């Protein structure tokens, strides 16, 4: 979807606020953020930006897409998994297709992109690079949709994302009795209603080639891969849709994140790093709602196609928060450059830090270049 002018976006924002369906608090706040972003950029035009009022694309919620639009996205995702890998074999010997290139990159950089100052911008760029691959390599004409977790938190399996229909991202895995997931010492998420291979929907024959490295699901004969997780290990897509995890994506949890006044508070609450080990947060809550393999694996989670709808929602959350006050929040960074280092010390991230995913995904960019969805390589907003 493209709009002819920023004033067209303003009309869209106003219409969103007025529509009865916009009683959802996150949707209402997102519409206000869109209007503020429009006003801010109208008052502070960037002459050097490639993004202008005629070229801004709009990312939409999965459930708002028509069946045809969902099918187009699904077909492009399946297409990408049929394209040959561009990863050097020395880097990712197990990568067999273009989707694997994204998984391998995430595995390789996991300890430097989680709990870090670049978490939000890195995953923003990663999701955008995936969108660009769908568009440029598989002919997709739309834009990356997002999963509005809070709309479906009480029953994710009935959502248009996981209902297993031909227009979903496939359903749950077959039920297999299995373990609860320990998220902190002595703190567990009960096992969900799946655990086995996905048997319904367009991704029922999806092949996971990389990992696992750290899996939340443990079954007899199913063990994490030794080494890097980058070796060839083909297997089915498993899911374990989990209501206990989904409760951490409810509206009140989302709004708690958006109520934070600074980037430190925003990331702390979003990541569930509040000091309460039982507080999962929306980021982990979304991942463990999917669960299974690779969805419940800290390293290889992009191997499940639902990952990109989840992280588009994380990006929408960040975008909504930023544009409540675009003048002061667009450029904020907080956190170290690494989640773990051998000496236990990591320097603080800065806007000059470079995100480098390898030329087979996207060219290197600084955190500053990745902070505004209408600046740097980007030109998109959310509804």
TrEMBL record:
Superkingdom, natural source: Eukaryota
Entries under SUPFAM superfamilies matching the protein: Di-copper centre-containing domain
An example molecular function term from Gene Ontology annotations: metal ion binding
InterPro entries: Di-copper_centre_dom_sf, Tyrosinase/Hemocyanin, Tyrosinase_Cu-bd
UniProt keyword terms in alphabetical order: Copper, Metal-binding, Oxidoreductase, Signal
Signal peptide extent: 1-23
Pfam families with a match to the protein in the record: Tyrosinase (PF00264)
Tyrosinase copper-binding domain location: 114-131, 304-315
Protein known as: Di-copper centre-containing protein
């Amino acid at each position: 979807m493209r709009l002819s002018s920023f004033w067209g976006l303003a009309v869209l924002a106003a219409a969103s606020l007025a529509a009865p369906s916009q009683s959802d608090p996150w949707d209402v706040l997102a519409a206000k953020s869109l209007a503020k972003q429009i006003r801010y950029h109208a008052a502070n035009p960037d002459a050097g930006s490639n993004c202008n009022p005629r070229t801004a694309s709009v990312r939409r919620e999965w459930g708002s897409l028509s069946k045809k639009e969902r099918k187009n996205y699904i077909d492009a995702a399946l297409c990408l998994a049929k394209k040959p890998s561009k990863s050097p074999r020395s880097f990712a010997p197990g990568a067999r297709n273009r989707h694997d290139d994204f998984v391998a990159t995430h595995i390789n950089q996991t300890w430097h992109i989680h709990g870090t100052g670049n978490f939000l911008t890195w995953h923003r760029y990663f999701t955008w690079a995936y969108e660009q691959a769908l568009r440029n390599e598989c002919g997709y004409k739309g834009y990356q949709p997002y999963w509005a977790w809070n709309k479906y938190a009480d029953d994710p399996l009935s959502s248009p994302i996981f209902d297993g229909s031909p227009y979903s991202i496939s359903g749950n895995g077959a039920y297999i009795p299995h373990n609860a997931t320990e998220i902190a010492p002595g703190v567990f998420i009960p096992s969900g209603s799946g655990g086995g291979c996905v048997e319904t929907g367009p991704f029922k024959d999806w092949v996971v080639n990389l990992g696992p490295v750290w899996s939340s699901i443990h079954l007899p004969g199913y063990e994490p891969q030794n080494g890097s997780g980058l070796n060839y290990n083909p297997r089915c897509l498993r899911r374990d849709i989990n209501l206990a995890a989904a409760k951490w994506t409810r509206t009140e949890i989302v709004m708690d994140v958006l109520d934070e006044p600074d980037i430190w508070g925003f990331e702390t609450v979003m990541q569930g790093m509040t000091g309460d080990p039982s507080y999962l947060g929306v980021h982990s809550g979304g991942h463990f709602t999917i669960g299974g393999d690779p969805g419940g694996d800290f390293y290889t989670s992009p191997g499940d196609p639902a990952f990109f709808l989840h992280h588009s929602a994380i990006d929408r959350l960040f975008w909504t928060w930023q544009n409540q006050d675009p003048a002061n929040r667009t450029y904020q960074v907080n956190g170290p450059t690494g989640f773990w280092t051998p000496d236990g010390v990591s320097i603080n991230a800065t806007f000059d830090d470079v995100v480098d995913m390898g030329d087979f995904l996207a060219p290197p960019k600084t955190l500053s270049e990745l902070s505004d969805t209408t600046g740097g390589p980007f030109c998109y907003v959310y509804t």
